[in-house]
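Researcher: Re-running this chain for the archive, since the previous output was lost when a drive failed. Same request as before.
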Amino acid sequence: MVEMDKEPLGFGRSRLVENTVSLVISGIFGVVLTLTQLSILSRFLEGEIFGLFIALRGFNVLLATLILMGLPQVLMRFLPSYQGREQRRKALSLFLTSIGVVLFLGGFLYAGSGMWREWIPDRLSELFISDDIIFWITLASISLAFKLLLYGGFKGLRVMSAQMILELSSLVLFTGYIFFTRNSLAVIPLFRALFVINSLVCLSGYPAYFRLSKRLIGEREISRGNIILPSFLSYWVNCVILGLVALAFTDIDRFVMSSMLPVATISVFHIGSRINVLVKRFLGFPILALQPEVTRIYEEGRWGELKGKILLFTKGTFVASLLLIAVVAVTGRDIIMLISGAGYEKAYIVLLILLPTVPIAAFIAPLLVTMKGLHYIKWALLCDLIWMIIYFGGFPFFVSYLGLPGMAIAQLFASLIQMIGAVLIARKKGFYGGLGNHVFRAILIVVVITPVGILAANIWGLWVSVLSFAVFPFLCRFVFRKIGLFEPSDVEQILDLIKFRHGKRIAGWFLTV
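Model: Regenerated structure tokens:
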């Protein structure tokens, strides 16, 4: 018998809302800390050195991804199934094997550093690339791989509050470090700090993971009948390729840019692109919480509920993304000026071009996580591959004619093509729910208010930006309630998911007519 004051074994209740709340809290503070980091680095590093660090950070992510071999996604898919079937031994074996693989490949990377350093473009190699820099990039990559593997484990257990605490701690530590050393910042100390901070996260996080997995996964070996558990080897191979393709969605494009544009230009693109990514990340938190819940719903034999869940998520995140990009379009110039100063004013053009990719991502993200959470990962891989080919294949052409804005245009074009592919696949597999009724009213509102807001910001300046953020919650409330975005049954379903009283009141304020 399960005691009432302990977490039930197996799946238990949905953790969708509490995981979303954890990720949103992490995201709010993460945005503040990331923007603070950007401000310090862009103001206290020369443009060329800042561009070098950003490009090498992309290279750092590339190496960590090669070490990980798609294992975090494997954990996110199989751990919820092992939890639902109470197969603790398999869950433990999977996690320990993943640690072993990362440890082996990390050692191989360290031993072969003389070989892969040749991958660095000549334009970067000429900017102080030394043996010490290679050494610390290698260690930072290995520690980053272990941290991301740990986060994949927490997501698989559907306990994302642990990841929230660890990631916020790492952001606070790195922000504090660059603040107190801002007058003597250099590339090597920055990567050394990343290695130390990632290592501290792992030292505190791995013991916590093992304690949680022992408590949350039983040992009764429950059978799930005709529920499909994908072939492990096939799924892993797809995850390895997906992980490599997903590099295109990280800072790796800055690394590739270094072979085409001056290094100082990379920092300008990075500022505009990073703000856009932060908006996407903030809106993507419910989607991150959704993937293990999709697996849970499927494992419990409730396939018929999936389309409705996906539609509900798509409506909410899509309309929220529309309203948020309207606010960011109005306030973006002032945000960039406050963060980095007038020297980065051109980053605003990059930001404006990239902002439409946010609602596109909000539209297709639930479809992609459903593919990954079930047994359609090859189709998710295809969608990401389409994006990568269009983006990386297109930006040399766009950059040659349009310069820096061409990078942003190539990314927008790639997102549109990816959206078409994801919708067609989801329709074919039977879980496409569309956007629902009344969404186009929200699009019309955004199309009308955004140019007016940008014009007002150009005339009256910072006060318009402050006012935009102040009225944003009320704008969301007006749109959600007055255009009839959610049916009464949708509102009831959302409120039923929220188990804490104050959260239910806040959601009711936004949604209930």
